[in-house]
From TrEMBL:
Cellular component terms (Gene Ontology): MICOS complex; mitochondrial crista junction
Job description of the protein: Component of the MICOS complex, a large protein complex of the mitochondrial inner membrane that plays crucial roles in the maintenance of crista junctions, inner membrane architecture, and formation of contact sites to the outer membrane.
InterPro entries in UniProt: Mic12
Family: Belongs to the MICOS complex subunit Mic12 family.
Membrane topology: Single-pass membrane protein
GO biological process: cristae formation
Protein name (record): MICOS complex subunit MIC12
Localization annotation: Membrane; Mitochondrion inner membrane
Subunit text: Component of the mitochondrial contact site and cristae organizing system (MICOS) complex.
Alphabetized UniProt keyword annotations: Membrane, Mitochondrion, Mitochondrion inner membrane, Transmembrane, Transmembrane helix
Organism lineage string: Eukaryota, Fungi, Dikarya, Ascomycota, Taphrinomycotina
């Protein structure tokens, strides 16, 4: 009799797991399809709001001061990068040796 109970409990547990997994898959697919339809409708609204005519790109004229500022910033950034990448350990040793030679005279 105990074999029958263990068999029935195994069938019950496995069928309950199968049922819950199938229902959760069904719910997730319905939620996923709803989300996809919602995103499609949002994209359609965005497309309908955007202008349909393809015009040539418009270039803004830059002010001379903005160009000078950009060049200044670029050169300043190059200087800072050079300063961070420079190896000053050898140069400080040479400077210390030169100072010590100067004082030793």
């Amino acid at each position: 009799m105990s074999r029958v109970y263990s068999f029935l409990s195994g069938v019950l547990v496995s069928s309950a797991l199968a049922y819950t997994s199938i229902t959760s898959i069904g719910l997730s697919t319905t939620n996923l399809s709803k989300d996809l339809y919602r995103q499609i409708s949002l994209l359609d609204q965005i497309d309908s709001e955007s202008p349909t005519s393809q015009s040539s790109p418009k270039f803004e004229e830059r002010i001379f001061s903005d160009t000078v500022k950009d060049l200044w910033n670029t050169e300043f950034e190059k200087g800072v990068r050079w300063f961070y990448e420079a190896d000053f350990s050898g140069k400080t040793f040479d400077a210390a040796r030169t100072v010590s030679d100067w004082f030793s005279r």
